[in-house]
Amino acid sequence: MALFITKRCINCDMCEPECPNQAIRMGDEIYEIDAYRCTECVGHYDQPTCQKVCPIDSTILADPAHAETNEQLWEKFVVMYHSDRL
């Protein structure tokens, strides 16, 4: 499933440059994750880099509104990778 950033975000700017899918952008108040671009780093890394670099625990969580299996995340990665290369 895609990830989302909670209101615990302190806008430290650590997550945005680490996202290989360019799914993280500054929102009105805090950073936000585009669920349609987030693959939880499947296809890139073993774990989501945004969670790894975030200095505040429990800030970047699985988004229950966008439940996806690892296979679905992999397929999303493949489609994005292919379309980004065109």
UniProtKB/TrEMBL annotation:
PROSITE patterns: 4FE4S_FER_1, 4FE4S_FER_2. Keywords: 4Fe-4S, Electron transport, Iron, Iron-sulfur, Metal-binding, Repeat, Transport. GO terms for molecular function: 4 iron, 4 sulfur cluster binding; metal ion binding. Residues 1-29 form the 4Fe-4S ferredoxin-type domain. InterPro entries: 4Fe4S_Fe-S-bd, 4Fe4S_Fe_S_CS, PSI_iron-sulfur_center, YfhL-like. GO terms for cellular component: cytoplasm. Pfam families: Fer4_7 (PF12838). It comes from the Bacteria. The keyword Transferase does not apply. This is 4Fe-4S dicluster protein. It comes from Biostraticola tofi. The lineage of its organism: Bacteria, Pseudomonadati, Pseudomonadota, Gammaproteobacteria, Enterobacterales.
